[in-house]
């Protein structure tokens, strides 16, 4: 199946009050697991490559081309997305490589600078038919600090979308990046307020720290794209440790990485059910 557009996948889910799982690719095994899970669940997924993952691989191209190849071979609808890019040149590279969705993260800038930079990304991306996500109201945790009090202002969000032309907006509603426990307290009232006035799909970052029932409710209240990364890396790591503890003589990485890939696949199937439980 060819890549589907992010607009098809994400706006379709928004209209039906369903959640779209967006999962971060670090190794090829991640992409394989997520695509296999999508096929089993019979739903689309977003495969995300972050700026940090590109740096780990020495550049975006190696992991992006591998992920695109896996996506194109999928029987399920798949979007390949650049996640949390603060480097403007990386956004242009992602578009040139064929990713069909990008997130430009200008949330560290002041409001006017964020609007200007994001609008510039939108002009370039839309000329190539590429979907653009942006962020307003900085989500906690990127600097290692959990910031549960940060919230996106609905009026500012409406103005930002109008000024930039973005296709989706990541908002701060109580979640935080890189949480290893699932104790985040989401502001469901703020989610509903944002959903009522913001004309584009809302994105929940830092969803690894959100419990299953709250993920389902977040979708019910108006979130559409749900980003999950750390939780799946925990799943992978636990599976690797278990396999190696049980098989201390094994040195073939295909065996233990395969066990980790299978564990991530099964957890993503489960999570896709959680996101669509509404």
Give a structural overview.
Helices cover 51% and strands 15% of the residues. With 278 residues, the protein is α/β, with parallel strands linked by helices. The protein has an 8-stranded parallel beta barrel, surrounded by 10 helices. Helix 2 (28-41) runs parallel beside helix 4 (60-72), helix 2 (28-41) crosses helix 11 (253-275) and helix 7 (154-164) packs parallel to helix 8 (188-197). The protein is globular. The model is unreliable at 140-146 (pLDDT under 50).
In short:
The protein contains eleven helices and eight strands. It has 278 residues and is α/β, with parallel strands linked by helices.
Top keywords for this entry?
278 residues; alpha/beta; 8-stranded parallel beta barrel
The total strand number stands at 8
> Unreliable segments (pLDDT under 50, ≥5 consecutive)?
140-146
SSE order in H/E notation? HEHEHHEHEHEHEHEHEHH
Number of contiguous helices: 11
Distance between the termini: 27 Å
* Sheet/helix structural class: alpha/beta
Please report which band the strand proportion falls in: under 5%, 5-15%, 15-25%, 25-35%, 35-45% or over 45%. 15-25%
- Mean pLDDT, to the nearest integer, reads 90
Categorize the overall geometry.
Answer: globular
Instruction: Tell me the major beta sheet.
Output: 8 strands, parallel, barrel
Helix content: 40-55%
Strands of the widest sheet, in order across it, are 1-2-3-4-5-6-7-8
The value of Rg in angstroms is 18 Å
